[in-house]
Amino acid sequence: MTSTINDMMSPSPDPSQIAAGLIDLLDLREIETAADFATPATVAAFEGDSSPHPGGHVFGGQVMGQAVTAVGRTTPAGRRIHSMYSYFLAPGDPSHPIRFQVDALRDGGSFSVRRVLATQPARSADEPERTILAMTASFQEQQDGLEHQERAPQAPDPEGLPTTAEVLRGIDHPVARYWATQRPIDIRHVTDPIYLRPDPASDTADTQMVWMRTLAPVRADPLLHDAILAFASDYTPFEPILRRQGLSWITPGLRMATVDHAIWWHRHVDANEWLLYVQRSPSASGGRGLTHGQLFDRAGDLVATVTQEGMIRVKPAE
């Protein structure tokens, strides 16, 4: 998909079309396995396109969501993803399709483990094929066992909070317009948004909370709902770091890139329903920042845990 962000802009975007576009994005097509790339464990290969995104690169959450779809389509029926770990190796080019080559590492009595590499064509004839993401994921049959969980903190209902479009209304900038009108996930901040200005309480702000769900209801199989959760989990993990440091998304000289991202699914959810994403940053050092997040449903149940480490730097003004 080679459209620019400006091509995607519409004075009256249709939320249903944007949400349906997310399903199309995550619903990969199976392709023939490349003989020169396959391993003895390779079981399938898939291909997906990209959606326009600010910065001219592929959104990391998109590649993770597509990788979840790829590995999930190779596991025995009845097994759902319970954990995944991704390394981001290079920025993706939205002008080229992404290929997902899946290796089966184990199929046991209850668990299946898969590895997937996301690759794109070389940028020139003398360069090798580029690997942009490496993921390992584990799937499990539904089983009974011991149970306990943390409960969701108190938070105002999402219906009474401003949408991103309302927060950014009147801001004439391509990135602001994209966030306000083109993201397929409805994100509503409980804590003050830091799109345009730092958190005034940065000295004491150790927790961030946002509500998230698909922009409009979608119909999709359970695997795609798991993929949507992976997609959406990558939108805000940098914000707790920025919040603690007294920075905003538009801080001059700010540079950020995800290094690795992990998710544990404790319960499986419908991505059409609101999820409360509670996040904090326990550490920043060495040009990297770490965030820890918990996703709760409206009933207060803990449905997933997320950790992410990213490169984050502020280039000094010259």
Structure explained in plain terms:
The protein is of the alpha+beta class. The chain has a single domain (5-142, 159-314), classed as Acyl-CoA thioesterase, double hotdog domain (Porin), CATH 2.40.160.210. Helix content is 19%, strand content 35%. It contains 7 helices and 12 strands. It has a 12-stranded antiparallel β-sheet. The longest helix is centred in the N-terminal third of the chain and has 13 residues, at 60-72.
Give a quick summary of the entry:
The chain is 19% helix and 35% strand. The protein contains seven helices and twelve strands. It has a twelve-stranded antiparallel β-sheet with strand order 1-2-4-5-6-3-9-12-11-10-8-7.
Topology, please?
Layout: H1 5-8, H2 15-26, E1 29-31, E2 42-48, H3 60-72, E3 79-88, E4 98-107, E5 111-120, E6 130-141, H4 164-167, H5 174-181, E7 185-189, E8 208-214, H6 222-232, H7 239-245, E9 254-265, E10 275-285, E11 288-297, E12 302-314
Antiparallel strand pairs: 1-2, 2-4, 3-6, 3-9, 4-5, 5-6, 7-8, 8-10, 9-12, 10-11, 11-12
Helix pairs in contact: 3-6
